[in-house]
Predict the structure.
Amino acid sequence: MGNLIYRIAAIITVALGTALTVFALMAAYRTDDDWARMLFTLGMPASLLLPALGALLAAIGVAMFIHALRAMEREG
C-alpha cells in the first residue's frame, strides 16, 4: 500500500512540475498584456528560474516513480 501511495505522489509531482514548466515558459515568452497581467496577479517573475524549478520537480517525480517500480520488482 505504501508503494502505491509513493507512486501516486510521484505521478502528481511529475504532473505539477510539467505544468509549472509549460506555464512559466509560455508566460516568459508571450508578450501579450493578458499574460503580463496574469503573472503580475500571481506574483510570479517572468524569468527562466521558474521553468527550471518545474523541470527539476518533474525530474524528481520521474526518479521517484522509477525508484518505486524497482522496489516493486525487488519485493517480488
Notes: DSSP finds three helices and no strands in the chain. The mean pLDDT is 80. The longest helix spans residues 2-29. The radius of gyration is 16 Å.
